[in-house]
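Page 37, continued from 36.
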């Protein structure tokens, strides 16, 4: 477990955070500009000291003001990747990758460079690399130093669309392969949806919410604070087949229900997560015909909750084959249909609204529901 219980005052601003993060997986730090993300990252890295508090990783204390313990940045064994790659210009890519390794381990270099797609760059010098390639090398170097924790501070910022997408794909695959906690700071909801397991929402130096990404995204009281996220659900589904003529992919949920969406680049048989935005889900009491909506899922209502900041809109929580789905409908419709927990309804979802989060990889076996 990664324990963070720190306070730091900077002028008018106070960061006050008390968090327990998982030992594995990606925790996204999200919050508006000035909410304290960088301040927190600098405390974890050991670039600044808290005024009060303790930071411990798997019981190893990095900092504790009560006992005056402070492990300096170079002895924390953290992998840190900033917005800019900061490679050593006089070392080759291989030299950069091996820089922080205690003993050179060709098998580890081969594994990480394979995962990051930089095998062909190993003899090149940093000034010959593109921005995206240099970031991949920086991430590889951070990982090969056998860190206890990986800190990624907006590692994709400033890359153009194609390079960003490419690096996101490598990153999404990589973070599933490593066995240390990863803290990922980003302003971009699509990046976080692709790589994060958990989300910490910061505001004015305080933790407003912390939990599994899917659960935090579903909390109606956070809707206005989550900016670009929208309320959504992530459904795990298996690619059943592709219909080339109609340019659609058919997916099946674990209970056998089917979804159709524009063709996905995934092999039949593979599992993946699909983002379903609550505002793209409508509800009917009975199966409907004569509609353009291609997807109908039978679901049970588990809760109906008007939004705190918009009472004319109700969030309906649904259970579809033991997966949570959400629908945002008008409170007037909710009342007119008499919707209530326990009712079985039809959730209608437009095919074109369904999306696989950018670069989200196929699910690993242990993630399949
Ligand atoms: N040295 C300092 N002295 C006084 N205030 C500071 C100092 N450094 C940062 N702050 C303030 O602390 C607050 C948190 O800043 P921080 O950089 O952690 O935010 P952030 O969430 O990373 O923002 P961004 O998304 O814009 O990078 C801001 O109000 C900032 O002005």
């Amino acid at each position: 477990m990664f324990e963070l219980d720190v306070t730091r005052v900077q002028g008018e601003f106070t960061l006050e955070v008390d968090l327990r993060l998982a030992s594995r997986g990606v925790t996204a730090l999200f919050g508006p500009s000035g909410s304290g993300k960088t301040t927190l990252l600098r405390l974890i890295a050991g670039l600044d000291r808290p005024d009060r508090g303790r930071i411990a990783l798997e019981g190893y204390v990095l900092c504790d003001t009560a006992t005056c313990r402070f492990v300096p940045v170079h002895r924390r064994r953290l992998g840190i990747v900033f917005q800019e790659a900061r490679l050593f210009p006089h070392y080759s890519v291989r030299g950069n990758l091996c820089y922080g390794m205690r003993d050179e381990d060709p098998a580890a270099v081969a594994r990480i460079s394979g995962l990051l797609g930089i095998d062909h760059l190993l003899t090149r010098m940093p000034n010959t690399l593109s921005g995206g390639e240099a970031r991949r090398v920086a991430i590889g170097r951070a990982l090969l130093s056998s860190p206890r924790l990986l800190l990624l501070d907006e590692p994709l910022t400033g890359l153009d669309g194609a390079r960003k997408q490419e690096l996101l794909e490598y990153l999404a695959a990589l973070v599933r392969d490593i066995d240390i906690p990863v803290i990922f700071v980003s302003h971009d909801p699509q990046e976080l949806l692709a790589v994060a397991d958990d989300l910490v929402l910061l505001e004015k130096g305080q933790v407003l919410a912390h939990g599994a990404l899917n659960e935090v995204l579903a909390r109606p009281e956070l809707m206005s604070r989550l900016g670009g996220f929208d309320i959504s659900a992530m459904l795990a589904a298996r690619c059943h087949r592709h219909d080339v003529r109609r340019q659609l992919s058919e997916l099946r949920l674990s209970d056998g229900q089917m979804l159709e969406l524009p063709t996905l680049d995934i092999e039949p048989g593979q599992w993946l997560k699909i983002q379903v935005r609550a505002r793209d889900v409508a509800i009917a009491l009975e199966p409907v015909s004569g509609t353009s909506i291609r997807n109908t899922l039978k679901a049970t209502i588990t809760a109906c909750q008007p939004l705190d900041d918009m009472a004319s809109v109700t969030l309906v929580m649904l259970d579809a084959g033991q997966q949570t789905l959400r629908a945002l409908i008008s409170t007037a419709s909710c009342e007119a249909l008499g919707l209530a927990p326990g009712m079985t309804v039809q959730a209608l979802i437009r095919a074109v609204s369904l999306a696989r989060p950018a670069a989200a990889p196929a699910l690993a076996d242990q993630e399949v529901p």
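The helical segments are 37-45, 93-98, 106-116, 131-144, 161-177, 189-195, 213-217, 331-337. Flag for discussion at group meeting. The radius of gyration is 23 Å.
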